[in-house]
Amino acid sequence: MNKKTKYGVGVLAAVLLAWAPATSGTAMEGPETVQIDALAQYYDAVTFDHTMHVEAAEDNCAVCHHHTTGTPTDDPNCVRCHNTSQEGDLVACQDCHAKNRFEADYLQQIENNPRLYHRSKVGLKGAYHLRCMGCHQEVGAPTGCEDCHSRNDAGDKLFHAGTYAPAPGSESEGHH
Amino acid sequence: MAKINRRKFLKTTLAGGVAATAVAGKQKNALAGGSFGGYPDSMGVLVDLTRCVGCRTCEAACNKEQGLPAPSRSFDDLSVLDKTRRTTESAYTVVNKYEVSTQDHPLFRKIQCNHCNEPACLTSCFVNAYKKTPEGAVIYDPTVCVGCRTCMVACPFYVPAYSYSSVTNPVVKKCIMCYDTRLKFGRPPACVESCPREVMTFGKRKDLLTIGHDRIRNNPGQYVDHIYGETEVGGTAWLYLSSAPFEEVGFDVALGTQPIINYVKEFLTVVPMVLTIWPALFAGFHLLATKKSKANETASAQDTK
Amino acid sequence: MRSIAANGKMPIATLTKPDGSSTWTVKEKLLLGLTPGEYVAQMVRNPVNWVLAVIFAVGIPVIIGRFAFGLSWVTHSSYDYPWGLFLGWGLFTMVPLSASGFMLGTAVEVFGRHDFKPIERLALLNGLLGYFFAVMFLQVDLGQPWRLIYPMFVSLGPAAVLFLVAWHVATYLSVQVAELVPAFAEWAGMPRLKKFIKSMVVGLTIAGIILSTLHQGALGALFTYAPGKVHPLWYSSSFQWFHFFCSSIFAGLCMLIVVSTLCKNMMTWRCDTNFLNNIDKLTISLARGAWMALVTYLVIKVIGIAHDGDWKYLASGWGQWFMLEMMVGVIAPIFLFTRAIRTNSAKLARFTALLACIGIALNRLNTALITFNWKLYQEIPHWREVMIVVTIYAVYIVTYRFILYRLPILYSWKEEKKA
After folding, report:
1. Which of B240, B68, B85, A176 is nearest to B95 (CA)?
2. Closest C-alpha among B119, B181, B192, B126 to residue B154
């Protein structure tokens, strides 16, 4: 091959390589589904349909991921600092939102860092429900607890529901 | 009446006065003019009513953590929200639903002990059963409780319940902020941890006030510009943010900023005054009254001489 | 008993029998010098005892049930209304009505008003029994009555007003028992005991007035723990304790008038001439004292309302109820006592005293139960709660009568002439 052809093939290869992940849909638009099992104690894991939600958000990643995917957010308060944010390494919710938000070590972390800006960042469970349910309420999607994740046996026990439900007519504490 | 000489009289009056002082002089003088703003690092909980959807997970978590009896209705039975409930001997926290004027969907409020900085229950207890811990929780010792139920009268939030159904050991029942099982070890209460929408934020009370005011400031028009519990009855550890006026969500907005003990202080200051002044005052009356009759006695004695 | 006395069987008033043969035995003294048969016969004849029998038949099982099944069986187990009739009547009403003890003790021993001597002991007994049964009511009300001594010996909470009430009531009971020991000592024939107490009587009386001032006021101060819960017309931020203390003064005096009237009319055989001849005059004197306390109370009440700016509440349903209480319990008695004193009418004074006692009961029940939680729903006490209150009050009356029949309260014990 002469020099010109080698150069052309190289460019074509580079472009193809760059494009390949994009066309398969994993880099730009995230995973197809996400298993959310942070609630495993009382609820069955949720198979979150990521692709469907990307469509529902009309490809605007910022609706759920703030600015972390590089898509700019339209919240004027955030834009002040994050206008030029690029796609970050940490995109998944659990990467930033702590599972045990109120345990002493996390609280101590915040306290040790007085210049931390996002001091009252919600935990993972709160992030999911505040983000998801807020939008669901607006668009008329399901908002009941079990609409998204059904309770397991331990959950039924906690709620005294299902097989653990009290017998009907067992009225107590009617005292005011 | 037996003849009484001055020495005997003073002895007995003094003994009576001292006896009265000794038994009732145990009144602790409240800090003059001062008030207690809470321990510096005490924890608190900020409750954001705009986030609550009335799922009652907190009630279920509390029931489990505190080993409370099984409820009469499932915790996922949301029809209980149709009636306004209060805390009971088997429910340390309840969620109520309120229709409000500022929006078309209801607001929900979680009720539990507010863990006041200067609790009325603690103030009123004559066996010192209550304690405000440095961690912020107001806890209760059922082993000394006599069952006088003054704390239930005193609590401006109508929180303490009583296990009337128990024959041998009825005691007061209320939220203790999971002190024994969690707070003591630096862990958040069960309700806070369980809440799916993170309605409750756990942290140091002073930080929560900052967070609360920041939230109001950063979301203009969304919240009523007041944190309920910041100053009410001397300040509480459980603080509330609301998008509707607080009186519409079942809060008592007429409580004022004075801790309940301030209303009692006026009488408590009268106590030492009476204990010290009355003996002298009435001994004086007695001397005046008997002086006249003594004078008559000596006069008549002289007459008969 | 009247007919027995009329038939010549003199009620016991001396240590030795009238014929000088021997001293009365304890059994004879207890049975009033009657044979057991005669004693039971007079009991059965007395219609008051029939009413009491019915009350006890229903009430005693209920009281046993309260302890067997817990408070939930006899009350509505209310969390919003933790205090019911046991405290509302038994403590808050009975304690001011029993203030006669310190009032007359002070009048006689401290102020030297020996003209009150004929009713002094009745006043002391009224006080002692009232407080003793207030404690009985308290024991029925407490969730764990066996822990009554906890605020004294186990875990002390000295900053609480109830701590003061507990200590004072306990101490004051002892003082009142001591003040009545002379009467007991006369009846039991223990002259040295009587002398011992008499040597401390001024000290005891002053201790009594200190304790009474504070605990009568403290019962009012208990409501300062719930400033928003009692209706503003019944609650004064600054004067609550004084309202209760001042009203206890005329409550005690008026109750004494009522009780002495009952004794005069229903136990005439037991009263000696010293009592009967002086009672009308003393009633007027007591009325004078009550009148002064009533006027003071009215003035401070008006000042209290002005101080808190509560005038607007008068124009409401609660306001009308308040005016009724003030009319019946304070204003009408002031006018009626004035007239009674002016015309020297003991009869009118007695009626007025009853009116004032009703007013006191109304005030205390209003503060503790009726206007309490005025912003919430109303609560009617459980019928068993009412039954227990009636029963314990009946026991109080029976005890009162038992002592009055025997001890030298309404009559003077004839001293032994030393040979």
Report:
1. B85
2. B119
Task: Provide the pLDDT for residue B270.
Answer: 93
CA atoms within 13 A on the CB side of C360: 35
CA-based end-to-end distance of chain A: 93
How far from C84 is each of A95, B276, C138, C365, CA to CA, in Å? 58, 35, 11, 9
Q: Which two tokens stand for residue B70?
A: 């099984």
- Closest Cα partner for B157 from C235, C224, C80, C81? C80
Q: Say if strands B107-111 and B94-98 run parallel, antiparallel, or are unpaired.
A: antiparallel
Distance between CA atoms of residues B73 and A174, nearest Å: 12
Strands B172-173 and B200-204 come out as unpaired
Using an 8 Å Cβ cutoff, are B109 and B98 in contact?
yes
Taking alpha carbons only, the member of C130, C124, C209, C205 closest to residue C408 is: C124
Spell out a b/e string for A78-103, using b for 16 or more CB atoms within 10 Å of the CB, else e.
eeeeeeebeeeeeeebeebbbeebbb
Q: Are the beta carbons of B75 and A107 separated by less than 8 Å?
A: no
Q: How many CA atoms lie within 13 A of B63 on its CB side?
A: 21
Taking a C-beta distance cutoff of 8 angstroms, is the pair C346, C284 a contact?
yes
Residues C407, C122: Cα–Cα separation, whole Å: 10
- Which parts of B25-96 fold into alpha helices (H)? 57-65
B154 contacts C111? CB cut-off 8 A? no
Handedness of CA B3, B7, B11, B17 (dihedral sign): positive
Of A127, A145, A175, the CB nearest to B55: A145
Distance CA A36, CA A57 (A): 19
Q: What is the pLDDT of residue C207?
A: 93
**Neighbouring C-beta atoms of residue A40, cutoff 10 Å:** 12
Distance from CA of B170 to the nearest CA of A (A): 15
Residue C193's SS3 state is helix
Q: How far apart are CA A166 and CA B159, in angstroms?
A: 26
Q: In chain B, which residues have their Cβ closer than 8 Å to the Cβ of C106?
A: 282
pTM: 0.88
Cα(C121)–Cα(C101) distance, rounded to whole angstroms? 8
Residue A58: which residues within 8 A CB-CB, separation 6 or more? Answer: none
Selection from C392, C370, C377 nearest residue C84 by Cα: C370
Inter-chain touch A130–B197, beta carbons under 8 Å: yes
Partners for A (CB, 8 Å, 3+ pairs)? B, C
Element housing C259 (H / E): helix C240-266
CA–CA separation, C209 and B112 (whole Å): 44
What is the per-residue pLDDT across C248-298, written as a single tens digit (0 to 9) for each?
999 999 999 999 999 999 999 999 999 999 999 999 999 999 999 999 999
Size of interface A-C (CB pairs under 8 A): 8
Does C154 touch chain B if contact means CB atoms closer than 8 Å?
Answer: yes
ipTM of the complex: 0.91
Q: What pLDDT score was predicted for residue A79?
A: 85
* pLDDT recorded at residue B68: 96
- The residue with tokens 């509560």 is C310
In 3-state terms, what secondary structure has residue C329? helix
> Which one, of C340, C356, C351, C353, lies nearest residue C281 by Cα?
C340
Q: Which of A75, A63, A79 is nearest to A30 (CA)?
A: A63
Residue B276 has pLDDT above 60, yes or no: yes
User: Residue B72 and residue A172: Cβ atoms within 8 Å?
Assistant: yes
Q: C273-308 and C346-365 helices cross at what angle (nearest 10)?
A: 40
Query: What residues 56-85 of chain A have any CB closer than 8 A to a CB of chain C?
Result: none
Indicate if the pLDDT at residue A173 is higher than 50: no
Residues in C lying within 8 Å of A, measured between beta carbons: 76-80, 377
Pick out chain C residues at pLDDT < 50.
418-419
